[in-house]
Amino acid sequence: MSLNRHFNRGRDLARTAGDHAADVFAPLTLIGRGLRRHADWARGRWTALPKERRGPTLLVGAATTVGIFLLPHGPLLAIVALVASAAWVGRSPKSAPEPEPDLADVKLTALYAALTPYFGGFDDPFALYRMDGEWRAAFSGWEFDADGRLATLEISYPAYFTDTEPAARARIEQVVQGKAGRSREYRFDWDEEINRLRVSALAPLPADIVAQRFVTAPGEIVLGFTDGEGSHRTIPVEQGGVTEQQPPVVWRVGPRSAEPHLLALGAAGYGTSTLLRSIALQALPHGDLVVVDGASTGEHACLVNRPGVYTVETSLHGALAALEWVAKETERRLIALNSARHHGVAAPADVTRPLWILLDHLTELSELAHAEDRTDPQALLEVPLRHGRAARVTVVFVDDLEARDRISPTVHTCTRARVVLGPVTADSGSAGLGVPLDIAPAAHTPPGRGYARIGTAAPVRVQVPVTVDPLDEDAAPALREAVIALLPHRDTRTEAPAPVDAVDAAVAAGAVDPVDAVGALAPEPVAAEAEPAQVELSKDVASAQPRPAW
């Protein structure tokens, strides 16, 4: 047998003997510990006893001991009682549960360590951020919510940090959001004068506000709803069956508006077409619409043949014809308005009624026009964009966030109201809104969530009202009915026609002409996709305004 095996066997035997000895002597150890604690207790009592009472105490103790020895089996019972008491007292007390670590120590220490490579001055032994530094010297005003997540924090940083560079700020914001949790949005307030960064977690915006009539003045469009910091105004809205006061993001249009046109960008499926439908429903009571659906998805088919809707185009030929008419109509309105001012008379009603140009994914038609060597539809927007404010013409340009490079410079320059929907990054948010975004987006963005910037104001959060396509059978019936209620008249494609028996009864009673009864039973025609796509105006709109030339 090798020497190594002897050593291993001896070590195992010693470990086994030790375990057995510990089991055998455990009761003796327990009793010895208890006797020692009894002795410590008696010594403490004797020390605390006044000197004049020690003699009587010794006398009482001696008498008790003698009495115990005189009793039958007294010494045995006394020894058993002493051993039992020592065993009870000698028990190892249950270790007290370790106190939970301070939440601020755990989380803010990790944040301090993560910010040290960016804020630390490694050549300065007294730097605010260093490897062996204390986070309490750099952080103040911290608060945690009920779930233990960081709610507010004020961070001090050294003066040599480049807080005026967007890239440097973005790095710090990314680190802070990563340590505080990416499931929420955070607002970063950089105070460059005193080198302080204030971080605050933002509550989620309500996502259950459906399409409805909003309490606004003519020329005001509710793009969505934000928080109290984004708007100082509230309007009543129906939310969950009750009326709530919510702060809106209001876009003002008209001849005195500084931001007469809107550019909305977003990721696919995050509500850009929903925003366009919401704007259309709010604009219809006071103006007329020209809609171009460049993606040909049928998202705006519910507007076909509506009073006030000139046309809904989905083809390149129809879009070019519609936008050429819009350019000429803008020039006609300018001439009529200038003539009315020159002669000191009121302008005609057909030039003061707002005209809305709603464009959805027009860049797709631009690519098709380039492939066919035809006029770019975006080139026809120059006159409405540059002179639309004076002519009461408003352009709403909606497209994908990835297609922003294909949007013409004229559209970028003239659209000073911006909306970005869906998940954004620091680069895409800055490109879409025109300024760096001081809000860190959450990791998961619900549909209709994004950011808005009106003119030179700071970007604010926005949640677009739920405005579904009423022709979408997959949408909830309640949401479809809410949109149908806002359309100018009943649509036989979304609402059932009158029963045959009811029409026959009306004809028999003489209340309805037989010719009209046949027309009531016939399905309402739907605009075809042929080129050019044309939509006839309703009688009431045609009688009040000039009919488009296309």
Q: In words, what does this structure look like?
A:
Helix 14 (500-509) runs antiparallel to helix 15 (514-521). Strand 16 (449-454) and strand 17 form a beta hairpin. This protein has 16 helices and 17 strands. The strands form 4 sheets. The protein has an 8-stranded mixed sheet with strand order 11-10-12-13-9-14-16-17, with helices on both faces. A 5-stranded antiparallel sheet has the order 1-2-4-3-15. It has helices at residues 3-48, 54-70, 74-89, 103-119, 166-180, 272-283, 316-343, 349-352, 362-371, 382-391, 409-414, 426-433, 477-484, 500-509, 514-521, 539-544; strands at residues 139-144, 150-156, 185-191, 196-202, 220-225, 235-239, 242-246, 248-252, 262-266, 288-293, 309-313, 355-360, 393-400, 417-421, 439-440, 449-454, 460-463. Helices cover 40% and strands 17% of the residues. Residues 495-547 have low confidence and may be disordered. It folds into 3 domains: 21-44 and 79-88, no CATH class; 103-201, no CATH class; 220-486, P-loop containing nucleotide triphosphate hydrolases (Rossmann fold). The radius of gyration is 40 Å and the shape is elongated. The chain is of the alpha/beta class and 550 residues long.
Based on CA atoms alone, the radius of gyration comes out at: 40 Å
CATH architecture of the largest domain: 3-Layer(aba) Sandwich
The CATH superfamily of the largest domain turns out to be P-loop containing nucleotide triphosphate hydrolases
Counting DSSP H or I runs of 4 or more residues, the number of helices is 16
Please tell me what the overall shape is.
elongated
Largest sheet: 8 strands, mixed
Count of domain modules: 3
Return the CATH class of the largest domain: Alpha Beta
Q: What is the β-strand count?
A: 17
CATH fold title of the largest domain: Rossmann fold
Mean of residue pLDDT values = 83
Q: How are the strands of the largest sheet arranged? A: 11-10-12-13-9-14-16-17
Distance between the termini: 107 Å
Q: Would you tell me the structural class of the helices and strands?
A: alpha/beta
Residues in β-strands, percent: 15-25%
The percent of residues in helical segments reads: 40-55%
Unreliable spans are: 495-547
